[in-house]
């Protein structure tokens, strides 16, 4: 959150992060990159004066992170396309390579999790990351 606030003051960032969240097992750098990408995209697609909301919680052996924006939203027929390599929503005028969400979903799946979108035109977008808590094998 702090990194996303640096260098921009057009979008308000709010968060609800209960402390402490349980630890997940995985590649900390890739998980950080994944969440950073979701927040940066939400900021990029929000209007000046808009808000990006980040919520995290533990639920049934998983950590769930949701990043919501009040941007233009994504039509249902384009929602899977945005997760494809070089995939972008039709008519998007924002800069980017079309790799961010592809990599984010790949990182989530590599950790046994998922990344989904909840969006509709004119209603903003929500990206829901689910990562299972790692099991630590303990010798008896």
Write structural notes for this entry.
The chain has 140 residues and is α+β, with helices and mostly antiparallel strands. The chain has a single domain, classed as Histidine kinase-like ATPase, C-terminal domain (Heat Shock Protein 90), CATH 3.30.565.10. It is 24% helix and 26% strand. The chain has helices at residues 2-5, 28-45, 100-110, and strands spanning 12-16, 51-59, 62-69, 114-119, 125-132. Strands 1-2-3-5-4 form a 5-stranded mixed sheet. Helix 2 runs antiparallel to helix 3 (100-110). The longest helix is centred in the N-terminal third of the chain and has 18 residues, at 28-45.
Return the average pLDDT rounded to an integer. Answer: 85
**Major β-sheet strand ordering:** 1-2-3-5-4
Which CATH-level-2 architecture?
2-Layer Sandwich
Number of helices in the DSSP assignment: 3
Fourth-tier CATH superfamily name: Histidine kinase-like ATPase, C-terminal domain
Calculate Rg over CA atoms.
Answer: 15 Å
Could you say how many structural domains there are in total? 1
Secondary-structure element string: HEHEEHEE
Shape field: globular
Count of β-strands: 5
The share of residues in helices is 10-25%
Strand percentage, roughly?
A: 25-35%
| SS-based class | alpha+beta
Low-confidence stretches: 136-140
């Amino acid at each position: 959150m702090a990194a996303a606030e640096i260098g921009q003051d057009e979008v308000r960032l709010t968060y609800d992060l209960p402390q402490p969240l349980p630890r997940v097992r995985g590649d900390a750098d890739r998980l950080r990159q994944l969440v950073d990408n979701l927040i940066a995209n939400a900021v990029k697609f929000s209007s000046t004066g808009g808000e990006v909301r980040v919520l995290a919680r533990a639920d049934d052996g998983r950590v769930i992170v949701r990043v919501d924006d009040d941007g233009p939203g994504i039509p249902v027929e384009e929602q899977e396309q945005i997760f494809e390599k070089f995939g972008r929503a039709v008519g998007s005028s924002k800069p980017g390579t079309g790799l961010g969400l592809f990599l984010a979903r790949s990182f989530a799946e590599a950790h046994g999790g998922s990344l989904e979108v909840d969006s509709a035109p004119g209603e903003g977008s929500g990206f829901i990351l689910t990562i299972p808590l790692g099991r630590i094998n303990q010798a008896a």
